[in-house]
Specification:
This protein has 139 residues and is α/β, with parallel strands linked by helices. Helices cover 36% and strands 16% of the residues. Helix 2 packs parallel to helix 3.
């Protein structure tokens, strides 16, 4: 028969950390981020026109204006539609201090030509020097 003493190993607290719950949580978060990351990069749903043109190099600092099929204007990644007056005010505030005065436009292919021209002329009025159009490759 074995006698346990007060100082034996069985009476001491366990000093190891159980990492299994932590690993489970990290794996669930990893799966969530893997699913949501492509959705965040896509932006607003716009069916771009197809064109065979030379691809321009886009940078993260490029300002993109999106115009959907209904004519709603979205500035950057903000999902709140702007009317032309609010768009003009925000664009003027942005380009007042910005050195690179370039703007990229993503417009739905069903949108009227006049709506795109309105956005382009507004951009030129507030100081934009270069305007680019984003399209889908023709394949």
């Amino acid at each position: 028969m074995k006698v346990l003493h007060a100082g034996s190993r069985h009476n001491q607290p366990l000093a190891e950390i159980n990492v299994v719950p932590f690993v489970d949580i990290v794996l669930v978060l990893l799966i969530i981020f893997m699913i949501t990351a492509p959705l965040l990069q896509q932006g607003l749903p716009v069916e771009l026109p197809k064109a065979e043109a030379q691809e321009i190099k886009r940078e993260k600092k490029d300002l993109v204006v999106t115009i959907d099929a209904k004519g709603n204007i979205f500035l950057g990644d903000v999902k709140q539609a702007l009317n032309l007056e609010a768009f003009t005010a925000k664009l003027a505030a942005i380009f007042k201090t910005k050195e690179d005065k370039a703007l990229l436009i993503r417009a739905d292919h069903q949108l009227s030509y006049g709506a795109v021209v309105d956005v382009m002329s507004t951009a030129l009025k507030v100081g934009v020097q270069r305007i680019g159009m984003i399209t889908q490759p023709e394949k």
